[in-house]
Amino acid sequence: MLRPVPLCKILLSVLTGAVCLLVAQPIMAEADPVARQQVLFSYLGEPVTFAAQVEASCYDEKQSEYIRCHFSRDENGRYWIDRLPPGRYGLNVSVDENAANPPRRPGDYHRYYQFSVGQQTGSKPLRVSMQKLINMTAPADNNAAVDGIGGPCGKKPYFEVPLASILPETKVEFAWHPLAPDVIYHYTLWRANCNKGGMSRLIYRQTNAMQVTETLPANRADEYYLFRITAVKNGEMVGNFSLHDTGGSYMPQYRFRITDPLGNRYYIYYGLAGVFILGLLVLRTRVRRIERQQKAVVSRAGSQTWKNIFLVIMVPATVTGVYYGYGQYQQHQAGEAEVKARASQEQRQSHLRAEFEFNVPLPDWWDNVSQPRYLFDTHSDIVSVWPKINYARDGLESRREIIKRCYLSIVAHTDDNDLVASCLNMIASLEEDREIVLMAAEFGVAHYFNHKHRTDYCVGCRPGDSTAGLVSRAASNYNANGDYDRSIELITRFLEAREAETAPYKLASLYASLGNAYWQRGDRRKAVELLEAAKVRFGDKNASGYLQYYLDRYSRLLSGEG
């Protein structure tokens, strides 16, 4: 039989529960900050609070894709980001600080900041040093849209060689507003091919002036120049550069051409030299006729004087003509050699293009996405697009537009290894069809295994990173398909050949995939030993923390806790 519970005991239980709840609330409140991290912004080494809204997005460097992350500002003006799972990320931050112009224009802040989240990170704040966009004033003002910079060669801004110039070259002035005191400006000039992509660096200089002038030769019909400037203070990059064309496209360099209204003015020089020599011959004939007519009165000394005059004029003219003629002959020979080399290269590129189109099929959604307004012409164009990829409502369509643009750019510029390797990585990162992802990664590994990734546009990049990304994508798909031996063989081959020239965070991803392959194949002890050895070998604490996440997981499974 149930015994009645005294009323006093019931009241005591209720009171005890209320007290416990009140005690627990501060504890729960204290745990809330761990669920997010504070973001401390600075500029030129000083804390900064922005007047404009901060736009931020997060990039998962392991998955090579942008993810949702909640970024907010509290009533005290502090910035916060929700705590992310352990891994390596990029925080892409833009602030339209200059209300007098559109976003991503001079005076605005921008920065892509890489950071890691580990098991022990807690609520440690992220310290983001921002960069301001530099205001170029000449040859164009990037406060306004610049017509033609994103279009074909014939539409780009151009400068003419003066008619009075002896050589086919002209001076171009580049100027900008100062960013801050004691800043060193780094500027670079490249020459690029209009049809085939790729570019070669011509000039890289540093200055503390606000204006520089460079003498540049006229471009060929299929060439153009690219100019870019950055600002550095105390070894830290504090200023970046960008501009927009009239179509709204973002460009990381000012692009222009130099044309010669006289065409190849050396031909004019040759013609003038020929006329001059012909005139001397006529003059010589006339002198001889005069000598015969006035033989009786003209002394031998006078005749010799005319001969000396003729020789003084004739000899330099002849030498000049021979010099220019030989130079033209050399130029002609070099042109023929270039034509032959280009024909051979075009044949190789034609085979590569056909192989790419055969091995990497078009996605099912291809016809539902409109044609891009322009293609990627250089590797820098691709770098400028990464911040635009997001997971907004139309994110899927945006990613598909970029994939289509990449695919067409590869077909158009198969000779540009930097562009093709980066586009293959982008396709493998953004496409949702795993079969196409695997095909793109395998094509990249087959043709760009020894490709040297560019390292001049980011901090911490290494020559093997681009290939490492393709290897990682291919290996992840092999693991997902149960083809663990193939995954192990591919990663091991890459590590043996290129581990020394690959960034630690890329290696961490590869070792994680390698450990996963061994684990899934049944070699669980070997998977743990492999990751432990790799973790000790890495000096990069972020990469070590990334591997530790997998080690902890495997250890729990081995001990029967997971």
Explain what this protein looks like in three dimensions.
β3 and β4 (65-67) form a beta hairpin. The two termini are 45 Å apart. The strands form four sheets. Strands 3, 4, 7, 8, 10, 12, 14, 15, 17, 18 and 21 form an eleven-stranded mixed sheet that branches. Strands 1, 2, 5, 6 and 9 form a five-stranded mixed sheet that branches. Strands 11-13-16 form a three-stranded antiparallel sheet, with no helix packed on it. It is built from twelve helices and 21 strands. With 562 residues, the chain is of the alpha+beta class. α6 runs antiparallel to α7, α8 (465-480) runs parallel beside α10 and α11 (524-537) packs antiparallel against α12 (541-558). The longest helix is centred in the middle third of the chain and has 60 residues, at 300-359.
Average pLDDT, to the nearest integer? 80
How many beta strands in the DSSP annotation? 21
| Gyration radius over CA | 34 Å
Kindly name the structural category: alpha+beta
Sketch the major β-sheet. Answer: 11 strands, mixed
The helix count comes to 12
- Gross morphology is elongated
The residue ranges in which pLDDT falls below 50 over 5 or more consecutive positions are 18-33, 390-394
Our estimate of the beta-strand percent is 15-25%
Q: What distance separates the N and C termini? A: 45 Å
Helix content: 40-55%
In short:
With 562 residues, this protein is α+β, with helices and mostly antiparallel strands.
Give the SSE layout.
Blueprint: H1 7-31, E1 36-43, E2 46-47, E3 54-60, E4 65-67, E5 71-73, E6 79-82, E7 87-95, E8 109-117, E9 126-129, E10 131-133, E11 136-138, E12 158-160, E13 169-176, E14 184-193, E15 199-207, E16 211-217, E17 223-233, E18 236-240, E19 243-244, E20 250-251, E21 254-259, H2 265-293, H3 300-359, H4 379-385, H5 395-412, H6 417-430, H7 434-448, H8 465-480, H9 484-498, H10 504-521, H11 524-537, H12 541-558
Parallel strand pairs: 1-9, 10-18, 12-21
Antiparallel strand pairs: 1-2, 1-6, 3-4, 3-7, 5-6, 7-8, 8-10, 11-13, 13-16, 14-15, 14-17, 17-18, 17-21, 19-20
Helix pairs in contact: 2-3, 5-6, 6-7, 6-8, 7-8, 8-9, 8-10, 9-10, 10-11, 10-12, 11-12
